[in-house]
Amino acid sequence: MNVTSILAELKSERTRIDQAISAINSLDSTNHYAVRTSTPKRRRGHMSAAARRKLSMLLKQRWAQGKMGKKASAKSARTSKPTHRISGAGRKRIAEATKRRWAEWRKKAKAA
Predict the structure, then answer these.
(1) What is the mean pLDDT of residues 20-24?
(2) Three-class SS of residue 102?
(3) From residue 46, how far is each of 40, 41, 52, 71, 112 by CA, in Å?
(4) What is the distance between the alpha carbons of residues 58 and 69, in angstroms, rounded to a whole number?
(5) To 5 degrees, how large is the angle CA 31–CA 36–CA 38?
């Protein structure tokens, strides 16, 4: 037996097996060859100066027409609701209760 011929046959067999493995790896689930590329870089869109000017003019027109302002329906619904305001006495009660809570919290913090 010639060792060199056996070694050459084994190497060629290994090459065929490697090629078969790489071909199987490149197939996706639909049995189509998948295009393997490096991870795509994120491309950001660039706007030409003319397009920026055009967009600026259009937005200025919209502002001038009042289309970008507050909607009238939301404003009318807001004014139709009655407004409830807290009285001075109610505000004072809330402030005193808050001060008491903070005093208790500080007392507990010092004790701990």
Answers:
(1) 83
(2) helix
(3) 18, 15, 10, 32, 60
(4) 15
(5) 160
